[in-house]
Amino acid sequence: MSASRRAAFADILAVLVTYGVPMPRALRCASRIVGDAHLTRLACQRATEIESGAAFGASEEKKDDLPPLFAWTMGSVRSGSQLSDRLRFAARYYHGCVERRLLWIQLWLPIVATILLGVTCTVAYTAIVLGPWYEQMHWFATK
Description:
This protein is mainly α and 143 residues long. The protein has helices spanning 3-18, 23-34, 37-51, 68-76, 80-142.
């Protein structure tokens, strides 16, 4: 799941929790709004856990779980205001991850593209200039 989807999920979940939507329903709604099939499956599993009375994240299946920040956020707090604050923190964190990746791309993509274009032009120019010269020298050498 990408950081942008995690940020959207945390934002939507925070809004739903703030307005008093029960956690199982909020998990299902937020995951469906984000549109990630893997996240929807995991959120529905966690919602079912909560509805059955188990603690959040009590299932043994951890290899395919929600991201650790969500597990910590939703497993450590039960009150609505604290939970929405922590979910907003998670959303800010994931928004920051997206922004850092975009800044990295903005910085390095032009540099890499310029280097690749320069190398390509240099190789092409070398082939155009030295190719006929090499052919001519080879012709002189064989005569």
